[in-house]
Amino acid sequence: MRHPPPDSARSRLSLLTFVAWRNIWRNPTRSLLTISTLAGGLMVVILYAALLQGMLDQMVASATERTTGHLQVHRQAFIDDRDPYATLPSAWLEAIETQVDGIRVAPRLYAAGLASAAQTSSGVMIQAVDPQREAQVTERLDHLRLGDARLASPPAGPEDPKHQPVLIGSQLARNMLVGPGDEMVLVTQAIDGSIGNALYRVTGVLKPLAPDFDRAGLLLSIRAYRELMYLDEGFHELAIRVDDPAQLASVEAQLEQVISELAAATPLDALGGPAVVRNWRELNPVVADMLALSETILLIVGLIVISLASLGVLNTMLMAVHERRHEFGILLAIGMPRRWLLLVMLCEAFFLALVSAVFGILLGAAVVGWLGEDGIDFSAALPDGYDWAGMVFEPVIPLHLEAGHVLLAALLMTVLTLIAAGIPSWRATRLKPVEVMR
C-alpha cells in the first residue's frame, strides 16, 4: 500500500483545516450563538474559580493571621482534656524565640468561668494574652467593634480591680447587655482549688472571630489572669507566627528539635504529657480538607456548567450534519476517506471551542478584574460576616484568579466540546452516498 509523501499529508491537513474554519461561518448566527453559550459557561467557571480561591485564601488568613497562628505548642493533656494544670514552662518562651529563627511567639492561658453583669450572668471561656506579643502574632486585637483594645492596666491605681480591662465577644455582649465602660464580675475555680473572683471593666467588644468565642469569649491580660487564677508560672499555649510561610515545614521541624532539647534539659511532669507541636492544618482540619478538595470541587462544577453549555455544540453539529447530508454524500462518493470527514467535523468543533475559549477567558478576566479589587460585598445583609464549619468569614469575599484554574477550565471546555461533537461527526461518517444523494 502506497502512502502519500509527508508534504502531501501536510497540505491536505492544511486544506481541511481551512475548510473547517470556513464551514463554521456558513451559518454565522448559529455559530455565534454556540460561541456565546460556551464563552458564557467558561466565564461562569472562571468567576467561580476566583470566588472559591478567594474564600480559601480568606479561610487560610482566618486560621493563621486572626486567631491560630501558623504553629501552636501545647501539652498533650491540655489537647485531650483542656487540663488547666498542663502548662508549658515560662522559660520556654524566650528559649524558643532565641533558638528558632524567623518566628514570633505569643503565650496564652485558658479557663472557664462565670461572668455576671448588672442583670445577667453567663458562662464564659476566659482567654489570657500578652497584648504586645499577641499583636505580633495575630490580628485579633485589631478586630474591634466598640471601645478600644486596651488590656494593660493604666499607671494610676494598678491594684484597683476596676482598672483590670477585658474584651468580650459581640454575641456575649448582646446576651449580657453590656458594652464598653460596664463592670463585670468573674468567678472561677482557681488553680489552687479556691474560688477566684474579681471585678473588671469592659473596654471593648470584638467583632466575630470564631463562633465559640463570639458567643462566650472573654479576653484579658496574662497579668489579670494570674491574679484571678493564682497561677504564678507557665502557659497553656504558645502561638507562633512564621515570618516566611513557605518555610513552615522546616521551621516546624526546627521547633520540634528545640522543644525536645528543652524537655530533655528540664523534664516535664508525667501527668501533663509531652509538649506537642501542631501546624495550622492540624489545628484547622476543615480548612486543610477544603484546600485538598478545592481542585476536585472546581472540576465537578466545571463539568456541570460546561457540559450544559456543550449541548449547544451538540445541537449545532447535529443541524450541520442534517443540512449537509447531500454534500457529505458527494465527498464520500468521489473518494474522500471517512476519517478525513470525521477530522473536518472535529476541526469545526475545535475552532468553535477555541474562539469560545478566547472570548470566555477575556470575559471572565474582565469580570474578576472588575469585582476583584473590592470583592463581592455582602455587608449590607451580613454586616458581621458569616460563620461556616466553625470559622467566621468577612462580609466581603475577595476574588483571586490563578492562571492554572483558567487553563484547566479552557482545557475542560475544549475536551467536552470535542466529546459533544463526536456523536454527530461519527454519524456523518456512517452516511451512505447512494441514499443521501438520491
End-to-end separation in angstroms reads 33 Å
Mean pLDDT: 82
Query: Which geometry do the CA atoms define?
Result: elongated
Class from secondary-structure proportions: alpha+beta
Strand order of the largest sheet: 2-3-8-5-7-6
Sketch the major β-sheet.
Answer: 6 strands, mixed, barrel
- Extended strand count: 14
Question: How helical, in percent, are the residues?
Answer: 40-55%
Could you say how many structural domains there are in total? Answer: 2
Topology (SSEs and partners):
Layout: H1 6-23, H2 28-67, E1 71-75, H3 76-81, H4 91-99, E2 103-116, E3 121-129, H5 131-137, E4 144-147, E5 165-169, H6 170-176, E6 183-189, E7 195-206, H7 211-216, E8 217-221, H8 222-229, E9 237-242, H9 248-265, E10 275-279, H10 280-283, H11 285-323, H12 325-333, H13 338-372, E11 376-377, E12 386-388, E13 391-393, E14 396-397, H14 403-429, H15 433-436
Parallel strand pairs: 3-8, 5-7
Antiparallel strand pairs: 1-9, 1-10, 2-3, 2-6, 2-9, 4-7, 5-8, 6-7, 11-14, 12-13
How would you portray this structure in words?
- There is one protein chain.
- By secondary structure, this protein is of the alpha+beta class.
- The chain has 2 domains: 6-64 and 287-436, no CATH class; 70-283, no CATH class.
- It has helices at 6-23, 28-67, 76-81, 91-99, 131-137, 170-176, 211-216, 222-229, 248-265, 280-283, 285-323, 325-333, 338-372, 403-429, 433-436; strands at 71-75, 103-116, 121-129, 144-147, 165-169, 183-189, 195-206, 217-221, 237-242, 275-279, 376-377, 386-388, 391-393, 396-397.
- β2 (103-116) and β3 (121-129) form a beta hairpin.
- The protein is elongated and about 105 Å long.
